[in-house]
Task: structure prediction
Amino acid sequence: MSRIIFVPQYPTPMRYQEWWWWKLPQEFAKAGFSVKVLGANVLNHKKTAQGGMFSPIKSAIALETAQINEYMELDLKHDDILFMADISFPGLFGNVLFHKKPKRCFAYCHATSMNTLDYFEKWRPEKFPIESSHASLMDTVFVGSNYHDDKLRWQNTIVTRLPYPPLKTFNRPKTLFMVSASRPTPQKVDLDLEMRIEEKFKWPIIRRDSDNWEDYYKFLAQAKILLITSHEDTFGYQIVDAVLNHCIPLAPNRCAYPELLPKECIYDSEEDLLKKLSYLLQLEVMPPTPELLCDQEMKDFYSNIIQVMTKEKEYPF
Result:
């Protein structure tokens, strides 16, 4: 039986790595692998950070240090497979693979410094070569969208989308017309556009911070429309979150949004957005169903990456 050496990120609450921490090893084990999670003992003895959108620096470094120590003490076997949950922000661990690595290495890449308006964009000249060199050590780097793949231009990427979140969803009465759920940064929200929309409709865009997935999903479930004005995104999990909770996402014609949504949910300009909002305001429109997303690819996410790692399936799927 092959063993997967799983290298997770620090599981920050309210971001996907919170559930990737346990979900990916669970799926690997269901497929028949023995799974070694690096750093598991560290987090079993301390609580993860509460709130916030990013990993606390000191805790993340402590986790990576523990992962490196555990990995360097491992006796690698000929059929071991290493899987890094995310090489978006290369930290300490990737460097050890230059010195010790199994025959097969895989990783998922969520973002990277190629994202415009990102916090790390200013350090791109230094950071992206590190990301690329780490990626070159992998047999395959899985990414979520063609948009992301085109930006990276790495030779070893495969677009697998992302899996459906393994979280409880809701169907609630629509007490809110329009909401915004993106974090308030220039990358994720066009505040000027949203203010003009509010002024035009005399209808506030409701924004609410959530401390847990259930509250966030309930918020989306109460809304008729999720307005997205992001300038940058690599997949668009909030679109998936909205659809699963019976809310209609309206997104700009950029990033990976056109890959995920039908044209009825995509706007090309501010004028087009106003027309679509006016239409939705007047009519009782049925919310989209998961079939409108990349449904089968998302359902098959785990089986697809496992079959690529075991050479049972070639790309394209």
